[in-house]
């Protein structure tokens, strides 16, 4: 039977002050579906961005949130989840869902994977969006063992995932960051370099030749320094400056692109495995009650949390 729930929705386009916490139901799962009791909802800048202005093919109201961690309440007949067999009560993570800012929801079963035991629900709920984005960035520039990459925004959520995945592959990282984020970059194996005027000279002063550049911030400084250091523009990728990418002939990726979506779906199982083995961690800054999603979203947008945020129903 269906499960009573609460879910944050955007009834109109705009900022979080327009969002509403609505009473809803998670319907009984059909074949190929599972119902999840959400224990934590991951928070990402895309959650706010994707309901700020109208988007083609998206109709209001829009349920908010893309990744969750919780437990299975019900399984549709003859259904397996993304990681294989599952039972009611199993703990799972789910990514590329619609409406993750909720207390319960029914989703396509292939989006759910067994939760890494080493991660709390709040950490697990923040693993896959940042993790799959980071993995794709490394993939698109063909980063290989022994190479050096320049990573703009190294202390952010995607940056920390890039640092960890690069270290596992024997790839050196020069990471641009604020002074406050420098220790985080070192913690995860990167060489921190302060962004701001003179960045190009500071990167060169490391004595490392840059083979590829990953941009997670989208500033003109990040793009200009990348272009100055990397001659092969197929080895520059951005998730934040699509206009500059089109202008200068390097690659911009986004989860809404079919190729990006396919890659990110395909890498989920590996990231879950790495986290389960303790080789990927998710730095967590703080949690908020589900009812305080608007305040949490403002904090995420306006502050430097120093880690991920999660909503707890």
Helix content: 25-40%
Identify low-pLDDT runs: none
| Backbone CA Rg | 20 Å
Give the structural class: alpha/beta
The total count of strands amounts to 16
Amino- and carboxy-terminal Cα gap: 21 Å
Order of helix and strand elements from N to C terminus: EEEHEEEEEHHEHEHEHEHEHEHEHE
Name the beta content range. Answer: 25-35%
> Which shape, going by the Cα principal axes?
globular
Mean pLDDT across all residues, rounded? 97
Number of helices: 10
Report the sheet with the most strands, covering strand number, pairing sense and barrel closure: 7 strands, mixed
Short summary of the structure?
With 313 residues, the protein is α/β, with parallel strands linked by helices. It has ten helices and 16 strands. The two termini are 21 Å apart.
Provide keyphrases for this structure.
six-stranded parallel sheet, 30% helix, alpha/beta, single chain, 27% strand, 313 residues, seven-stranded mixed sheet
Describe this structure in words.
The strands form 3 sheets. Strands 3, 5, 6, 7, 8, 15 and 16 form a 7-stranded mixed beta sheet that branches. The mean pLDDT is 97. Helix 7 links the parallel strand 12 (212-215) and strand 13 (236-238). Helix 3 (128-140) packs across helix 4 and helix 3 crosses helix 9. The chain is globular. The chain contains 10 helices and 16 strands. It starts with a strand and ends with a strand. The chain is α/β, with parallel strands linked by helices.
């Amino acid at each position: 039977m269906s499960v009573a729930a609460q879910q944050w929705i955007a009834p109109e386009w705009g900022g979080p002050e327009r969002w509403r916490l609505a009473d809803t139901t998670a319907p009984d799962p059909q074949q190929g579906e599972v119902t999840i009791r959400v224990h934590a909802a991951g928070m990402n800048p895309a959650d706010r961005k994707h309901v700020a202005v109208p988007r083609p093919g998206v109709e209001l109201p829009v349920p908010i949130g893309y990744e969750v961690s919780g437990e299975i309440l019900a399984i549709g007949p003859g259904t397996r989840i993304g990681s294989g067999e599952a039972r009611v009560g199993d703990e799972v993570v789910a990514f590329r869902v619609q409406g993750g800012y909720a207390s319960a929801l029914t989703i396509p079963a292939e989006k759910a994977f067994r939760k890494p035991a080493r991660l709390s629900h709040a950490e697990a709920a923040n693993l896959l969006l940042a993790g799959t984005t980071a993995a794709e960035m490394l993939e698109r520039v063909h980063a290989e063992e022994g190479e050096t990459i320049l990573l703009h925004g190294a202390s952010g959520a995607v940056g920390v995932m890039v640092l960890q995945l690069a270290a596992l592959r024997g790839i050196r990282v020069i990471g641009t960051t604020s002074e406050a984020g420098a220790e985080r970059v070192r913690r995860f194996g990167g060489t921190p370099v302060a962004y701001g005027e003179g960045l190009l000279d500071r990167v060169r002063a490391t004595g490392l030749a840059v083979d590829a550049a990953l941009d997670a911030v989208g500033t003109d400084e990040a793009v200009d320094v990348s272009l100055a250091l990397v001659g092969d523009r197929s080895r520059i990728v951005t998730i934040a400056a699509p206009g500059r990418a089109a202008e200068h002939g390097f690659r911009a990726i986004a989860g809404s692109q079919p190729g990006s979506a396919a890659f990110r779906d395909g890498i989920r199982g590996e990231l879950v495995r790495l986290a389960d083995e303790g080789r990927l961690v998710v730095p967590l800054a703080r949690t908020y009650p589900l009812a305080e999603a608007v305040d949490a979203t403002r904090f995420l947008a306006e502050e430097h949390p120093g880690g991920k945020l999660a909503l707890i129903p």
